[in-house]
């Protein structure tokens, strides 16, 4: 300033080269320079697992089990039926299912055709179903008998998952399997203008996520996972494929059980669950149920993964006192647009006395940038907006090119042509190289992990 009294403050760089290098290291900028490695599609990885141990139990639900071999054959039969009905690569298939074994079969069956699945939660109003069907333009919709009426009158091929003609279909996979860069699913998130937006995510993002997490968490065959979340919430992508692509057993948890901490605790004990994924608010209730459980009701959890909401470590003090070694508690910040999980932070007793919500460091395939309003790196301790770049970014919002261009923006930090996602989340780097979540830059809120734009509520009230 002494050399140029007219220089504007906002034009000054507050970080020197050493500090910028430190921020780049913490944010894993090197991920942008890594060559893209060939990855497998979800069906290809599942087929390998099914061939490895076809007799192992893949999915359990309300006392019934299905093995990997049976699940693979059921999905293959559905895939052939879908192909007969005109489904193929590059197309979309809507799924209207409660949590069930049939829902898992439907997902795998759709993916085996090369099409993408579009999950719709049965609890939503008919108007929401109509919107998703209209916006995503699926060529077919799959459901169960008592939900089929909600799809009637739509210009799509309707398929009952229990169609008796399925049994005559081949048990071998269809010829056209997807590539890793084909879209695997569209998941709709809330929109600021009242219009939900569908995020397109390819297979390679999912398998790449699991590969990155393998580097920090021990995922292995024989582990017992839960699916506690709706197919329309991308936490379910992690729950389902984290289990099935690692040789684990997936325990599907009915919605009524997920809403009762006592019943969920009993299920975790009875099924000897080892990997549990929860929103923080749901886990706080489970923690209270665990404190009231008798000594015979011992959990066998190895890993608890938090996501979907800001975590308050101070509320975990009693849990960490009662469970000082296992399970490991992992906070994984993430957004649908960057494929479920983006960061990793193990929560320990040392975190309970702190303030804020620690979200840690980026996973190995992603890079984080904390930027000010002029896209300059925010210094340590200074709040900025989080931008995420790397191999986990989705393709954008289907049919919303303009909106996509405002959220998936050019990345000035890596190779030419790179993109980064503007999250709208306010964060800051701590002196320890760990990120702290501060809040939102807009009016978005979260309820049970679902992103809710207040503009969508306002639009509905005014309709």
From TrEMBL:
SUPFAM superfamilies: Acetyl-CoA synthetase-like
Matching Gene3D superfamilies: 3.30.300.30, N-terminal domain of ligase-like (3.40.50.12780)
UniProt GO cellular component terms: cytosol
Gene Ontology molecular-function annotations: phosphopantetheine binding
Species of provenance: Mycolicibacterium fortuitum subsp. fortuitum DSM 46621 = ATCC 6841 = JCM 6387
PROSITE patterns: AMP_BINDING (PS00455)
Transmembrane segments: none
GO biological process: amino acid activation for nonribosomal peptide biosynthetic process; secondary metabolite biosynthetic process
Pfam entry (one): AMP-binding
Record protein name field: Linear gramicidin synthetase subunit D
AMP-dependent synthetase/ligase domain ranges (all copies): 46-397
InterPro entries registered for this protein in UniProt: AA_adenyl_dom (IPR010071), AMP-bd_C_sf (IPR045851), AMP-binding (IPR020459), AMP-binding_CS (IPR020845), AMP-dep_synth/lig_dom (IPR000873), ANL_N_sf (IPR042099)
